[in-house]
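Dear colleagues,

As part of the handover before I leave the project, I'm documenting each prediction I ran so the next person doesn't have to rerun anything. This entry is a single chain, and its sequence is reproduced below.
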Amino acid sequence: MTTNEARKDALLARLSLTDLVRQSLAMEANPAPESHDRMVKAWMSDEIERRMGGVQDEDAFCELLDQGHSYTECLIRTFPALEAHR
């Protein structure tokens, strides 16, 4: 296991869905994230999506992204149950 994989596994094992959503939204609010922040943010988004069962309608999801919504906001709109985890 690489160092990045170990960090990823350790991070995701400790975080609840609420923590993932809140931290992901907070990281997206950073106007100039460092490269490691972008990587962690991607891990968190992937984990949120995985826990919710994956995006079934990729076209609708991409349309939300095209409208300018953040990735996490698109996940929240795609999975309304995530709204309770803001």
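Residues 26 and 82 are 15 Å apart (CA to CA). The longest helix spans residues 35-51.

All the best with the project,
I.
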